[in-house]
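Marked as duplicate of an earlier ticket. Keeping the data here for the record.
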Amino acid sequence: ESDTASEISFQFNKHKKTPSIGSHSSDMASVSSVSGSVLSVYSGDFGSVDAQGTVEFALDYDEKNREFQVHVSQCKDLAIVDEKKGRSDPYVKTYLLPDKARMGKRKTSVKKRTVNPIYNEVLRYKIEKMVLLIQKLNLSVWHNDPLGRNSFLGEIEIDLASWDWSNTKLNWYLLKPRSLSAVNGVDHRGVMSLSIKYVPPGSLGPKNPPSGEVHIWVKDVKDLLQLRPSGVDSFVKCYVLPDTSKKSYQKTRVIKRDTNPVFNHTIVYDGFHTEDLKDACVELTVWDHEKLTNHFLGGIRLGLGTGLSYGISVDWMDSTQEEVAFWQEMMSAANEWIEGLLPLRSL
């Protein structure tokens, strides 16, 4: 399977206490994270300048080619990043929100040593009109730094559902400070209903089970993003991190053309010791299935959210307060199903 938000893993040295977790015995010797295609809109921002100035652009939708076009004309009176040299090297970047993973970003060329750059460039998205109308356009201006320490200069966010599509003329817009919704990652991706249970080793009788088990019952998901007019063909992937091997990988069946899919699928991982629950993380991600590539819709991570796994700093140990509380309740109530309703998020 090919996924738009690709999975990255790397190896670290095995420790004597490294356990085996998985539906079969599997090595917990890799660390996984989701690629930069679903990172924040503001990743790489090192600047501290105040937003100022204006940007001129026009929006159009080409019905024949099913293409959304952002004609970026120019900017005026941008903030100066390098005060000593009195310069900024600006470029314009666009995202369609909240579906950053699917559409990715577009950006113009960089114009050097100017606070009044002229671009006259068209940024293009191949997308169905019906899908476009449930998106927001985030257009931001940035100073380009040779070392990658780019500075945010301002942005404008447009709800495309209420846009006047008869207006294809160039218009000026005031650049604003960062949007709180994008900074905080507030984008509704749906809600997953599930139950989890921990069965300690020997808790059901002598050597029964021989090792600890984590049971995950994926019930359903409500309110998934609809990426195309025909609906969503969704499925759920599951890993117990840091194990990203095939033995750790589980998935549900695909539910077709339904934004409220019912999976009713139970996954069991054995090989747990009780102390492993502090260092492991159950990652459940929802994907839209297509022939050539699957598209990330949202996910949850169940763990203690400490940022550490077996003493090693990892970016996937980032559970929200709700996810941490859910995991802690399971740890404190052995052999009991714990029910939860958790919002999907960008990982």
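See parent ticket for discussion. The two ends are 19 Å apart (CA to CA).
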